[in-house]
Design brief:
74% of the residues lie in helices and 0% in strands. It is mainly α and 181 residues long. α1 crosses α2 and α4 packs parallel to α7. The longest helix is centred in the middle third of the chain and has 24 residues.
């Protein structure tokens, strides 16, 4: 329970202050824990980063089970949730993505979460009739990543897409892949 609280607070700190703002003290303050609590569970900065990334992966472990014939709505809902109520976690994920390019020790943990999402996406696409679910998952995840990034950190943040716009775009992408949406 305490590790989850610390992980959640670390995600919040990373999203708000970037990687440079992530300190044991900042996490203690954000989680409203006694000083030293975070360092008890994560002695080093590397351990704190691993705890935060593991917590993000844990929070990502949702069942991807779209209703039959409603894949576009499901995909759009996923993207919309990432842009709205999942904004903090996505901002932290982007910080981790950049940090993992510079720190090989984070690469494996970061990729573990990304591969899990791609695998689940491929499974859903296979169930939806995709002839090439792994390749199509790569395309669909890239579209979602780009759309979400633009809505949160790009010029698209000036007017993030709503659910209706995302649904139409998901239909377009799925139709381009030859997958019923």
């Amino acid at each position: 329970m305490r590790k989850a609280i610390i992980g959640d607070a670390a995600i919040e700190v990373i999203a708000a202050e970037g990687m440079r703002g992530l300190t044991h003290r900042a996490v203690d303050r954000f989680a409203e824990l006694p000083a030293g609590s975070t360092s008890y569970y994560a002695r080093t900065r590397a351990a704190l980063l691993e705890l935060a990334i593991s917590r993000m992966i844990e929070l990502d472990e949702v069942t991807l089970d779209p209703p039959p014939g409603r894949l576009a709505e499901f995909v759009a809902g996923f993207a919309h949730a990432a842009i709205t109520r999942g904004r903090t976690r996505m901002l932290a994920r982007y910080e981790f993505a950049l940090e993992a390019t510079r720190r090989p020790e984070l690469r494996e943990a970061y990729d573990r979460g990304g591969l899990l999402i791609r695998k689940r996406c491929a499974d859903v696409l296979a169930d939806s009739g995709s002839a090439e679910p792994e390749r199509h998952a790569r395309v669909l995840v890239a579209w979602m990543d780009g759309t979400i990034f633009d809505a949160l950190a790009g010029t698209g943040s000036l007017r993030p897409p709503g659910l209706e716009e995302l649904t139409q775009a998901a239909r377009d992408v799925l139709a381009g892949l030859g997958v019923a949406g």
